[in-house]
Design a protein that fits this description.
Layout lengths: L1 H14 L15 H4 L2 H23 L5 E7 H4 L13 E4 L10 E9 L6 E15 L5 E5 L6 E9 L2 E2 L2 E6 L6 E9 L6 E11 L1 H29 L9 H16 L6 H4 L4 H27 L7 H32 L9 H33 L5 H24 L6 H7 L10 H21 L6 H4 L7 H4 L5 H5 L20
Antiparallel strand pairs: 1-10, 2-9, 3-8, 3-10, 4-5, 4-6, 4-9, 6-7
Helix pairs in contact: 3-13, 5-6, 5-13, 6-8, 6-13, 8-9, 8-10, 9-10, 10-11, 11-13
Length: about 500
């Protein structure tokens, strides 16, 4: 009878395959498995409390941007009102420093009342830029030999017209700038006033940003070292999927907090800004990749690169490539010509933007599919429902908060710069910055605390078995414990290879 039982034991996985039969992967235990409901509540409460504290700090902080405006009638040397439709307008900035980070020149026209008439008109703008050093020496940045007549669109409802982005400097190199603006093909409209606005980042906000980026950077570095030390006791093959991803996300979060951010103030170059866009897009796309892998990977252990990771890399990689290309494309064009705008290259820009939206929709659909499949197959299984509910709860918080911040006209990378350049976008405090960076930092810290192993004694290390907790909780026979196969080998075998107690 025992021989027949052994025979069926050898072929049971081929005779009646069950869900747990393909889960032969062992993994280091996560703190998640030993947490009680009270501990879960404390973790969520701590997350929300610290996040609320960061929002309060942001609300008490300085505004993100500052605006200086000048009136066209005071800039025009001629007393002829018709010159408002032509110029030239000589506009000089107040004293600037590298703490202003970037500078936008925005124009806003007012026409004489046309009885609520709505109209749209294309016209040309010519802008020359001269930088003035601290020694009051002018240096031409964009003169008549290199500047372009850029086409802009004047959209008006009644006497109020939409603002027009005339020029954008991606970094501050001089203490003062002089802009000379001329208009063409707009003489047919009687302008009553032309307003010019200089918009830049608030130096007080820049100082606050440096300090909080440094704080997040130090905490992330310490968390990465602690996580690496906690998992180093085990062989990397025994780490669970979430534990492997935590180290990746902590490293990318370190880059997301931008250790080279002070170079923006010290190095007069657009390169630090491009690196910042690279770090941000890489972290956000990796977070999306993490969600896709977790929801799909919990249902199977056969995670080969070709069948499991490659399709997701192609999907998320297309999103990363389109987002990063959009940011670099506009920055590189603005470096050659500060008057460049995506509106002059609208066909290529719209094509990339459409590709970006398609990639976003494809990633969202894939994520929704994996979430539905994971809950339909694993929700009733002990311990796996914990992993599902935890990652889903915080994923919903992240998505809702991110969408809300975008609706409130604050984003990352290329979106952030476009929002800042809009006159309708005003920031009364630094709360948007604290909300965004605090959210992602706290999220990764919380995951690291929950997914990393807790305090495990040496005796418990010798009894750590499979990734599926329900398997390791089963009452195994003495023969299975004494003569267990490779799948049931203790996780600390690398540390104590001579220990044959199992």
């Amino acid at each position: 009878m025992s021989q027949v039982s052994d025979l069926f034991s050898q072929f049971s996985k081929h005779i009646s395959p069950a869900y747990n039969h393909d889960r032969c992967e062992r993994s280091v235990p996560m703190r998640l498995y030993s947490m009680q409901k009270r501990e879960f509540a404390l973790v969520v409460l701590a997350f929300l409390a610290v996040y609320f504290l960061l929002i309060v700090i942001g609300l008490s902080g300085p505004p993100i941007t500052e605006i200086e405006h000048q009136v066209g009638t005071l800039l025009d040397n001629k007393d002829n009102p018709k010159s408002l439709s032509k110029g030239p307008f000589y506009i000089r900035t107040n004293q600037l420093s590298s703490y202003h980070q970037q500078l936008w020149l925005i124009g806003k026209m007012q026409v004489k009342d046309r009885d609520g008439e709505t109209f749209q008109k294309n016209f040309q703008v010519e802008v020359s830029i001269t930088g003035v050093t601290a020694a009051n020496v002018p240096l031409s940045l964009l003169d008549s030999s290199s500047m372009h007549n850029r086409t802009r669109t004047l959209q008006c409802v009644g006497k109020n017209c939409q603002e027009i982005n005339l020029a954008h400097l991606g970094f501050i190199e001089f203490s003062h700038y002089i802009f000379v603006v001329k208009f063409f093909c707009i003489e047919e409209y009687a302008l009553s006033q032309v307003l010019f606005f200089f918009k830049s980042y608030n130096p007080a906000f820049t100082q606050m940003e440096i300090w909080f980026r440094l704080i997040f950077l130090l905490i992330t570095g310490a968390a990465f070292v602690a996580a690496s030390g906690s998992l180093r006791r085990f062989h990397w093959r025994d780490w669970s999927m979430e534990q492997k991803w935590i180290l990746i996300l902590l490293f990318l979060l370190f880059l997301f907090n931008d250790p080279q951010f002070p170079l923006v103030l010290l190095w007069k170059s657009p390169f630090p800004g491009i690196l910042d866009g690279l770090f941000q897009s890489s972290f956000l796309c990796s977070l999306l990749m993490f969600w896709l892998c977790v929801y799909h990977g919990l249902r199977q252990n056969n995670r080969s690169f070709k069948s499991f990771y490659l399709p997701k890399l192609i999907l998320v990689g297309s999103l990363w490539l389109s987002a990063f290309t959009l940011a670099v494309w506009e920055r590189s064009n603005e470096l050659r010509d500060p008057t460049y705008s995506y509106e002059v290259d609208v066909h290529h820009y719209q094509g990339f933007k459409t590709y970006f939206y398609i990639s976003c929709v494809a990633c969202v659909l894939a994520l929704v599919y994996f979430v539905i499949r994971a809950y339909s197959e694993l929700q009733s299984m002990p311990y796996f429902d914990l992993r599902l509910n935890f990652v889903t709860f915080f994923m919903v918080i992240i998505l809702l908060a991110t969408i809300s911040m975008t609706v409130l006209r604050f984003g990352v990378g290329i979106l952030e710069d476009h929002f800042v350049s809009d006159l309708n976008t005003t920031y009364a405090s630094s709360s948007e910055f604290m909300c965004f960076y605090g959210l992602f930092n706290l999220y990764v810290y919380t995951m690291a605390y929950v997914y990393l192993p807790g305090d495990v004694s040496p005796a418990q290390l010798a009894n750590i078995m499979k990734d599926n907790p329900t398997i390791s909780m089963m009452n195994d026979s003495d023969e299975e414990i004494l003569f267990g196969d490779e799948c049931r080998k203790p996780l600390n075998s690398r540390v104590s290879d001579g220990d044959d107690s199992d």
